[in-house]
Automatic annotation (TrEMBL):
Name of this chain's protein: GTP-binding protein
Principal location class: membrane
Main function: GTPase involved in activation of the TORC1 signaling pathway, which promotes growth and represses autophagy in nutrient-rich conditions.
SUPFAM superfamilies given in the database record: P-loop containing nucleoside triphosphate hydrolases (SSF52540)
Localization of this protein: Endomembrane system
Keyword Ribonucleoprotein: no
Any one of the GO CC terms: fungal-type vacuole membrane
Alphabetized UniProt keyword annotations: GTP-binding, Hydrolase, Membrane, Nucleotide-binding
PANTHER family documented for this protein: GH16429P, RAS-RELATED GTP BINDING RAG/GTR YEAST
Record GO biological process: cellular response to starvation; negative regulation of autophagy; positive regulation of TORC1 signaling
Region (Disordered): 1-25
Cross-referenced Pfam families: Gtr1_RagA
Catalytic activity: GTP + H2O = GDP + phosphate + H(+)
Length: 336
């Protein structure tokens, strides 16, 4: 892996929120009142417990907040009772810097009016701001039975696609997700939304594929530790269970780190014993996977891997070496 990486040419463009850029990835949450926009923002980006979202007040005016992590996201939220496509609003001020619009639909409520508003939004953006991705979150599915949840999701998706096709928008950039703040689905969906805004994604996936092949890793994720959003994974088939296990593993490591951790040095600094990164390996024999491996890349990013059937302790030196090479490659990709 080392020879392969050292001879590679990397995409060295910086993230929109990199140290040498003032721009930051910006998400816009839209949807009808009480659909769950504020709850999603609070749980994912502000670490709010899902139970506390019950006490959030209805959004009555446009709001913006930031999530300070490896990627300093900007999250804007528009109240659902206002029509933003009238002459009273300057649409350029609202949508000019948006990377993705997340339209939240309450799956437990009547959603026909929401679909009509969504269609109007998609057609407007397709004409005026075609680079903006539209991500539809069919939200609050935790309160529905499995069969009804899937039927509702298919109905919403089909109605939107049929209407767009009738209007001549057969290839509109629209994606659909089933989400809930009470499980990992909203984090996984936000992860996929964010990945579309990363120009470095193909390079990151290639690096993770090389690491998995060299060290016989079943699945590898590159997580933002603070938000539990994964910014990349290898391209092998993915299942929700593997993401949930790795996400929960990060929670455990973060909690232990707050009790027994140390102040991380700045990027490029070395400590006396070179222990500038947290590392953990656990056995998960009752969960169907044998080992989980975590290694901090810096104070914001962590590599989390589901290992293969072999005992990784027998090849720990090989794994550590290749993960170190992967870490050096990340530094080149992001210009650390």
């Amino acid at each position: 892996m080392s020879a392969e990486i050292s001879n590679s040419q990397f995409h060295t463009g910086r993230l929109p929120n990199g140290a040498k850029s003032r721009n930051r990835p910006k998400l816009m949450l839209m949807g009808q009142r009480r659909s769950g926009k504020s709850s999603i923002s609070g749980v994912v980006f502000q670490k709010m417990p899902p139970s506390e979202t019950l006490y959030l007040e209805t959004t009555t005016r446009p709001e913006e907040s930031s999530a300070h992590s490896f990627m300093d996201f900007q999250i804007a939220e528009l109240p659902g009772h206002v029509n933003y496509f009238t002459p009273d609003f300057n649409q350029a001020n609202i949508f000019a810097e948006i990377g993705a619009v997340i339209w939240v639909i309450d799956a437990q409520d009547q959603y026909l009016d929401a679909l009509n508003q969504l269609i109007d939004t998609i057609t407007y953006l397709a004409q005026t701001w075609p680079a903006i991705n539209v991500e539809v979150f069919v939200h609050k599915v935790d309160g529905l039975s499995e069969e009804y949840k899937n039927d509702t999701f298919r109905d919403i998706r089909q109605r939107i696609l049929d209407e767009l096709s009738d209007l001549g928008y057969d290839n509109a950039p629209v994606s659909f997700y089933q989400t809930s703040i009470y499980d990992h689905s909203v984090f996984e969906s936000i992860s996929k939304v964010i990945q579309k805004l990363l120009p470095q994604l193909p390079t990151l996936e290639s690096l993770l594929n090389s690491l998995c092949s060299t060290c016989r890793i079943q699945k590898a994720y590159l997580f933002d530790i603070i938000t539990k959003i994964y910014i990349a994974s290898d391209t092998s088939p993915q299942d929700t269970n593997s993401y949930e296990i790795c996400s929960d593993f990060i929670d455990v490591v973060v909690d232990i780190g707050e009790l027994y951790g140390w102040a991380r040095p700045q990027q490029g600094e070395k400590t006396e014993f070179n222990n500038h990164a947290c590392e953990s390996m656990v056995t998960m024999e009752k969960k169907g996977q044998n080992y989980l491996y975590l290694r901090e890349m810096n104070r914001y990013l962590a590599l989390v891997c589901i290992m293969g059937d072999d005992n990784p302790m027998e090849k720990k030196v090989l794994i550590d070496y290749n993960v170190g090479v992967f870490q050096e490659a990340l530094a080149k990709v992001f210009g650390w």
